[in-house]
């Protein structure tokens, strides 16, 4: 007789009424039935917290007034009742304090990106994780798309030959007006350096573009030349930026991220060019991957469990036959499903197939190099070697 897999028990900090990303996480985590929400502190506002808890079907006993109470209360429960993993969907400045406290209390953590507000802060969290038995996952949702994995496989199999150029762009238009001045909470905290950190647009969406480029290409960016801009009236953080970059493997690239591109929605796009072929993928058309081969007609690969020629790692992230679109929620659900499997296996550190602390450190090194490049006069600015920094932090 086969023993049924138990559902992984999940807690959540943040994500109350008016918060877009919290509801997205709850929907994605529930999609495959592998996790269940058992406790939360959705908001510091008691009314918001209570209403969101009621909507999610939580008992009053497992609805906590703040994140400190949640971690302490869950730690005191029996092993078969307490949460397994804490999901952190707060603004950036709370990512590390909450994650660190949860890991030190023996819980796993799945956190929204970026991992921290500074590289030093992320490095301290990495050292805490290294000394624990916990798992840490980072919600780089776009790395859960099946055709992103297909693209990665084609590159690693040599279908493009030697990579020469990587172009990634992420234009949005939602901050094209002074939205933060109207009381919009999402715009408010993203443009406040005390909450978001030293970068606005680049920390919010530039890290997605950067992570996607490194993930698909298998290359590591070593240096960049950046120009960041502020177009919003009296805005204090970047809302637009461009960077040239070079990789350790010899490719050059460009990265653009902007939240002031009028009329744009969520147009993340990547193109990779090698000496034997090229690839193109767009987040707003995620089930299509364009493959251009040298001296051959272009071919279009389509997502679907019945589609020929797809790699196993793409197929295992698909649920439906071709012609039935899968999208953003399914991509995040893939990360949650892999994370839940890793929890049940008793893995520690990183969950296979899920972005983790290494990606978090890389993202913060990218942000700090951008800011240093913007402030300085050197043509090229090196990214810090986060593997060496991680090792140094772990031994202090």
Description of the molecule:
- The chain has 13 helices and 14 strands.
- The protein is 35% helix and 21% strand.
- The chain has helices at residues 20-30, 46-55, 67-75, 95-104, 119-130, 146-156, 185-190, 193-196, 201-217, 312-315, 328-345, 357-375, 386-394, and strands at residues 8-13, 35-41, 85-88, 108-111, 136-138, 163-171, 221-229, 240-247, 252-258, 269-274, 277-282, 285-293, 299-302, 381-382.
- Helix 5 (119-130) links the parallel strand 4 and strand 5 (136-138).
- It folds into 2 domains: 8-141, Rossmann fold (3-Layer(aba) Sandwich); 146-319, Dihydrodipicolinate Reductase, domain 2.
- The chain has 396 residues and is an alpha/beta fold.
- GO terms for molecular function: nucleotide binding.
- Residues 9-137 form the Gfo/Idh/MocA-like oxidoreductase N-terminal domain.
- It comes from Chromohalobacter israelensis (strain ATCC BAA-138 / DSM 3043 / CIP 106854 / NCIMB 13768 / 1H11).
